[in-house]
Design goal:
heterodimer, A: 71 residues, two-stranded antiparallel ribbon, 49% helix, B: 220 residues, mainly alpha, Cytochrome Bc1 Complex, Chain C, 8 helices, 64% helix
């Protein structure tokens, strides 16, 4: 097998626990969820937490510089 | 040069009672002046948590564009040709990002109680939009034209029949499902999205719970 193809196969195998169509499932009481969906939810929670704690950067304005709205 | 619009306000025209003037005034009054596409925001908006609403909109645009390309190419194109498969994948992954951004947006707005300050309708349209998007995605999975769509429709039919709407919304009818997916539901999602964005621009983004709401400092 060519080296590039072997690398590709190894990479696909390494990702197999995510992409395996037969799927691995986490069964915890009444909760039954595929490993893929669980990892996606965990990733979304991580992004959510990062969005709360990571500084946004420049562009801040003085506290009094706010807009007026319709009631 | 002075234009007519600068010299005569809409209410001063002799046609003030006409329906076109009423519709025009209604459209102009939907959002406060300068707020349709604002270039300044309150200081608390400088946070990543406020980015996910517009990220959802951006993903929605990609969904619409790639969906349009799939409609032009057709089923055999998106299953067989390399470009078709690529566009098909773009459509799928933009939908995945659309939902991921939308749910993170939902979490953020839930925990900051975004219905405060007269924003109940903004919250409600967002929730209806979420449900309509799920329906649109569902009919999309039914329209793939492969064994997965057959499997999903066969599994879904009993659920749909159990709520008594199977005769009108037949998941085993791919012609009906793809028309719901590419015509009816995108129109619904698009219309509610416009409504939601107008409401956000009208009332402004919700401030954090411990911040002063600029909308409370208004006259009349």
């Amino acid at each position: 097998m060519p080296v590039s193809q072997a690398k590709k196969v190894t990479m696909i195998s390494a990702l197999g626990f995510v992409t395996d169509p037969a799927g691995r499932y986490v069964h915890w009481g009444v909760i039954l969820i595929s490993m893929t969906n669980l990892l996606i939810i965990v990733a979304m929670v991580i992004v959510f937490v990062l969005a709360l704690v990571v500084p946004f950067g420049s562009g801040e304005k003085p506290p009094g510089d706010q807009e007026r709205r319709k009631p | 040069m002075t234009t007519r619009a600068e010299s005569v306000s809409p209410d001063e025209t002799s046609e003030a009672g006409s329906w076109t003037v009423r519709v025009r005034n209604r459209i102009v009054g939907l959002v406060p002046p300068g707020q349709a596409l604002p270039d300044r925001q309150p200081v608390y908006v400088a946070s990543w948590i406020y980015v996910f609403g517009v990220a959802t909109l951006a993903a929605f645009v990609v969904v619409l564009v790639t969906g349009g390309l799939l409609a032009i190419g057709g089923v055999s194109w998106w299953h067989v040709s390399s470009v078709g498969l690529f566009v098909n994948s773009l459509h799928l992954w933009s939908v995945e990002l659309f939902f991921a951004f939308m749910v993170i947006h939902l979490w953020g707005k839930f925990w900051m109680a975004a219905w405060r300050g007269g924003r109940a309708l903004t919250w409600i349209t967002g929730m209806v939009l979420f449900l309509a998007s799920i329906g649109t995605a569902f009919t999309g999975y039914l329209s793939q034209g492969n064994f997965a769509s057959q499997w999903i429709s066969a599994e879904a039919k009993d659920g749909i029949n159990s709520i008594g709407v199977g005769a009108y919304f037949n998941v085993l009818n791919p012609g009906q499902m793809i028309l719901w997916h590419v015509v009816l539901l995108p129109v619904v999602v698009g219309a509610i999205t416009v409504m939601h964005v107008i409401l956000v621009r009208r009332h402004g983004v919700v401030p954090p719970i411990d911040a002063v709401d600029p909308s409370a400092d208004t006259e009349a």
